[in-house]
């Protein structure tokens, strides 16, 4: 029972972490860790930063609950 409640509590944080990993993999496979040159690379970076911000917010919210 406790495992189920823990998974329900941290479900959003785990999914956001997985999404961050996907953005990093897409960014690295696209051109490596360099200064973004194209609009696509800039958009990947923006999406990564937004997702990391959402992840931090969700972790803080879940930890305080």
**Helix segment count?**
2
The quaternary organization reads as single chain
Q: Characterize the main sheet.
A: none
Following the backbone from N to C, one meets helices and strands in this order, namely HH
E-strand count:
0
| Overall average pLDDT | 84
The assigned structural class equals mainly alpha
Specify Rg, calculated over alpha carbons: 15 Å
Task: Give the distance, in angstroms, between the N- and C-terminal Cα atoms.
Answer: 18 Å
Helix percent reads over 70%
Global outline: elongated
Low-confidence stretches: none
Query: In percent, how much strand structure appears in the residues?
Result: under 5%
List the main descriptive attributes of the protein structure presented here.
mainly alpha; 0% strand
């Amino acid at each position: 029972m406790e495992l189920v409640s823990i998974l329900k509590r941290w479900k959003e944080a785990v999914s956001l972490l997985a999404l961050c990993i996907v953005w990093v993999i897409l960014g690295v496979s696209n051109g490596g860790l360099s200064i973004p040159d194209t609009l696509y690379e800039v958009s990947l970076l923006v999406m990564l930063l937004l997702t990391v911000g959402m992840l931090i917010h969700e972790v803080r919210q879940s930890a305080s609950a």
